[in-house]
UniProtKB/TrEMBL annotation, chain A:
<dbReference type="GO" id="GO:0015808">
    <property type="term" value="P:L-alanine transport"/>
</dbReference>
<keyword id="KW-0472">Membrane</keyword>
<dbReference type="GO" id="GO:0042941">
    <property type="term" value="P:D-alanine transmembrane transport"/>
</dbReference>
<keyword id="KW-0813">Transport</keyword>
<feature type="transmembrane region" description="Helical">
    <location>
        <begin position="40"/>
        <end position="57"/>
    </location>
</feature>
<dbReference type="GO" id="GO:0005304">
    <property type="term" value="F:L-valine transmembrane transporter activity"/>
</dbReference>
<feature type="transmembrane region" description="Helical">
    <location>
        <begin position="12"/>
        <end position="33"/>
    </location>
</feature>
<dbReference type="InterPro" id="IPR001851">
    <property type="entry name" value="ABC_transp_permease"/>
</dbReference>
<dbReference type="GO" id="GO:0015188">
    <property type="term" value="F:L-isoleucine transmembrane transporter activity"/>
</dbReference>
From TrEMBL, chain B:
<feature type="domain" description="ABC transporter">
    <location>
        <begin position="2"/>
        <end position="234"/>
    </location>
</feature>
<dbReference type="InterPro" id="IPR052156">
    <property type="entry name" value="BCAA_Transport_ATP-bd_LivF"/>
</dbReference>
<comment type="similarity">
    <text>Belongs to the ABC transporter superfamily.</text>
</comment>
<dbReference type="Pfam" id="PF00005">
    <property type="entry name" value="ABC_tran"/>
</dbReference>
<keyword id="KW-0067">ATP-binding</keyword>
<keyword id="KW-0813">Transport</keyword>
<keyword id="KW-0547">Nucleotide-binding</keyword>
<dbReference type="InterPro" id="IPR003593">
    <property type="entry name" value="AAA+_ATPase"/>
</dbReference>
<dbReference type="GO" id="GO:0005524">
    <property type="term" value="F:ATP binding"/>
</dbReference>
Length: 290, 235
């Protein structure tokens, strides 16, 4: 029982982690809580589902289409909803994010209808024992996809020129500009990466719960945001750790306390972490040296 | 080399620069001195394209650069060492230096310039793999200068390089600025410490509340009564 829940929690947690990374990266670059992120995740799931069922494409291709579709949506929101108010106080950006979220949710209802659509069973589920834990095929696919995407992301951020530019921009926009970095490009690139990871998470969740619906991004978006805050907002490894903690806590809580508390657990952890360590697990609380 | 004409900058409703004009000849060190809030840093920020609401003219080798985005201005050859050094604390020394060469693609020459930077500032070489945030103030200033040089600028602008540093370190930094200038680099220096700035510069401009109050050859300004009273603390 406990071990089953642990593998459930790991699968769910890696999905939260993927979503939380998008939150944390955008926050790191432009200090915006990007509340449209959950809806980008939903759009990704719908794009992939449409490619899979309507166009009849293979799952891997559909997956990639979902990610690309969400990147396009994410970039359009950055360009048309955020760019005009980049220089304005952050509250304006934040309001634009909420507006864009409401727009996307309703747009999805218009296009795909408000009802829940089922994600077809395409994976033959078998049980595997792995490190003493029991995993289903689907759980292994989720974990594997999440790990591969996070490794690619870490490589990009740590070792590529664009990654270095991202880290510089997130630390000091003006200093980055003085290096000749086109910070607008960096911002768009960050949105693109965040959106693609968000879409991957949305598709994985659609496959896991076999359900895709226009409001699916709302609660998950909030929980992923909580995961990012728990890990220390702005920190990518923090988002990964925060996501995993949230996933495990939520499944264990649902199993041992009551499944009715499933959604409350995220916020209980949030309150606890904010009391004990306000900057999050890996958050940078150190004062900057001048 | 660099010609600034009638530069106006507005911060919201505040008229921060009220038509500043000055010019720098190739190979010269020009300094803008003046008290806090006079508009010296604003001038540099406007030249670098960090402030967009500006009017007038800024020409680099007769090419108008006002209105260009900051990355284009770096590419054309103006680098700035910003006030407070602004090094990337999370990146190590070498990564910081490589950021200075962000727009260049000539890998071999970048490597040579890196070695050159370590030759001018041997202390940076010792700390090559250390995070920028762990360096002392003087070392950070050296890193900021070396980082700006990595772009191979035609004009190097320095904003308050002496700020917060011990006198002996200030001397070291200014010796280095003089040396770079002797090797042919054109320098625009902004300083509150008028004394040391006018000692190394060829030409000085005194900035007061958004205007150039007066200007002259640096040695003459050092002897000027107005400068001595207002900026060198003598009566």
């Amino acid at each position: 029982m406990f071990l089953d829940q642990l593998s459930n929690g790991l699968a769910l947690g890696s999905i939260y982690a993927l979503t939380a990374i998008g939150f944390t990266m955008v926050y790191g670059i432009i200090r915006l809580i990007n509340f449209v992120h959950g809806d980008i995740y939903m759009m990704g799931a719908f794009f992939a589902l449409t490619a899979l069922t309507v166009l009849g494409l293979p799952i891997v291709v559909s997956f990639i289409i979902g990610m690309i579709g969400s990147v396009v949506v994410g970039l359009m929101i950055a360009k048309f909803a955020y760019k005009p108010v980049f220089e304005a106080p952050r509250i304006n950006l934040f309001l634009c994010a909420i507006g864009a979220a409401i727009f996307l949710e309703n747009y999805a209802m218009l296009v795909w209808g408000p009802q829940t659509q089922s994600f077809p069973d395409i994976i033959q589920n078998q049980s595997y024992n792995f490190l003493g834990l029991k995993f289903t095929t689907l759980q292994l696919i989720i974990l594997g996809t999440a790990v591969v995407l996070m490794v690619i992301l870490t490589y990009i951020v740590k070792y590529t020129k664009m990654g270095r530019a991202m880290r510089c921009t997130s630390q000091d926009v003006d200093a980055a500009k003085l290096m000749g970095i086109n910070t607008n490009h960096v911002i768009y690139f960050t949105f693109a990466i965040g959106s693609s990871l968000g879409a991957a998470a949305g598709i994985l969740v659609g496959m896991y719960y076999k359900a895709v619906y226009p409001m699916m991004g709302f609660t998950s978006g909030l929980k992923a945001f909580v995961a990012a805050v728990i890990g220390g907002i702005g920190s990518i490894p923090g988002a990964m750790i925060g996501g995993i903690i949230m996933g495990i806590a939520e499944t264990l809580g649902a199993a041992y306390i009551s499944s009715g508390y499933r959604d409350a657990i995220a916020f209980i952890i949030l309150i606890f972490i904010l009391l004990v360590r306000p900057s999050g697990i890996l958050g940078n609380s150190a004062k900057e040296k001048v | 080399m660099l010609q600034v004409k009638d530069l106006n900058v507005y911060y919201g409703g505040i008229h921060a620069l009220k038509g500043i004009s000055f010019h720098i000849n190739a190979g010269e060190i020009v300094t803008l001195v003046g008290s806090n809030g006079a508009g010296k840093s604003t001038t540099l920020r406007a030249i670098s394209g960090l402030i967009q609401s500006r009017t007038g003219s800024i020409a680099l080798e007769d090419k108008e650069i006002l209105g260009m985005p900051s990355e284009k201005i770096v590419e054309l050859g103006i680098s700035q060492v910003p006030e407070g050094r602004r090094i990337f604390t999370g990146l190590d020394v070498e990564e910081n230096l490589l950021m200075g060469a962000y727009l260049r693609n000539d890998k071999k020459e970048i490597q040579e310039d890196l070695e050159y930077a370590f030759k001018i500032f041997p202390r940076l070489k010792e700390r090559r793999k250390q995070a920028g945030g762990t360096l002392s103030g003087g070392e950070q200033q050296m890193l900021a200068i070396a980082r700006a040089l990595m772009a191979r600028p035609k004009v190097l602008m320095l904003d308050e390089p002496s700020m917060g540093l011990a006198p002996i370190v200030v001397e070291e930094i200014f010796e280095c600025i003089t040396e770079l200038n002797q090797k042919g680099l054109t320098v625009l220096l902004v300083e509150q410490n008028a004394n040391i700035a006018l000692q190394v510069a060829h030409t000085g401009y005194v900035v007061e509340t958004g205007n150039i109050a007066f200007s002259g050859k640096a040695p003459d300004l050092l002897k000027d009564d107005r400068v001595r009273k207002a900026y060198l603390g003598e009566d």
